[in-house]
Write a structure and sequence with these properties.
By secondary structure, the protein is an all-beta fold. The chain has no helices and 5 strands. A 5-stranded antiparallel β-sheet has the order 1-2-3-4-5, with no helix packed on it. Strand 4 and strand 5 (about 90-100) form a beta hairpin. It is elongated and about 65 Å long. The mean pLDDT is about 90.
Length: about 110
């Protein structure tokens, strides 16, 4: 089994960003996160967005592509946490990911 745990919303305001670029295929990755209280002590939120992409660099003469492994990916992830009575919590998560192209062809 695989269990992936992401950072949860909290009452601590935070933000971060990241970015990477590498050639020769113009690979890039960018991302940003903002999190913090919506109603202090009651409702917290977290929103993360990201993108990555690259130009293709593999020639596929059969299909006529000179960029056979290009990639464009966009991701959005959000979470809301509600602090309920009797020390209970309700967390609602949403995730969207759009991928065009293909992964690395190793």
């Amino acid at each position: 089994a695989i269990n992936i745990t992401t950072r949860q919303p909290s009452d601590v305001m935070e933000g971060r960003e990241t970015g990477t670029y590498a050639g020769p295929d113009n690979f890039y990755t960018v991302g940003a996160t903002v999190a913090g209280p919506i109603v202090t002590g009651r409702i917290q939120g977290r929103l993360s967005v990201g993108a990555q992409g690259r130009d293709g660099f593999i020639d596929n003469t059969l299909l006529g592509y000179d960029d056979a492994n290009r990639l464009a990916q966009r991701t959005v992830r959000g979470a809301l946490r509600f602090d309920l009575p009797a020390a209970a919590e309700l967390t609602v998560n949403a995730y969207y990911d759009r991928v065009e192209g293909s992964g690395p062809l190793y």
